[in-house]
Amino acid sequence: MTKKRNKTRNRHGMQVLTLCISTTLVLILLGLVVFSVLTTHNLSNYVKENLTVTVMLGDDMSVNEGHMLCRDLYHRHICSHIDYISKDDALKEQTKAMGTDPSEFIGANPFVATLELHMKSEYANRDSLKWISAELKRIPKVTDVNYQEGLMDSVNNNLQKISVVLLVLAVLLAFVSFSLISNTVRLGVYAHRFSIRTMKLVGASWKFIRAPFLNQSITIGVIAAFAADIVLACGVFFLYDYEPGIINVVTWQVMTITGLSVVFFGIVISMFCTYLSVNKFLKMKAGELYKI
Q: Whole-model pTM above 0.85?
């Protein structure tokens, strides 16, 4: 009798361990999708805000006027960052890059002062840049406005395609994840189908019968979620160790939302699958338990 009881406990323990491992693997995949969607959004903003609009200033614009123009543009809330490059700064940069001073051959500084505008992500698109460019050209002492229109369109189109692919992948993976966890949970509940039948015969309510299964599913969901979070966190650590600049895209907000999403999915999916599986056996008649 003791050996049989120990064997039953070992079998139950293996079922729980198997469910934890399979749920962890599924949650890692779900976490990767959530992580990818969030980082793609941040990457989109990062790329857009690093695409610059160059404003060419006239020779008669002083340094003070240039700084005042920077301040005015900041107040318009269309730029995340503005770099003012004076004529002297431009000459120094080109001299350093070329190895010679162009002014020595020409007899004067051939460069003009410029503003490098890093647009906010919501304004880094074709339509917004057209009216912004037109507005900038109306400013006195602004001679020209340049930006890489083709590159801007290419970036926006590619990011939109990536977003659609990730969204489709997220839907498919959510469906597959639900199916895998549901089948694993159903196997665990299947082993207790006769216990469920016995409790029904002694008058136990469905709520009372479901309670221990749901409590176990919550525990398994939490354990699997934390295990998945640890794996994902290790992956982010290796990414950061390989490329520290990744912190501009993989922020603490992204990691927090991903971690909480994994815990949420782990608990909700496990509970929902367990609820459906237990209800299935609760609705079965005695004869049907022997046919499955």
A: no
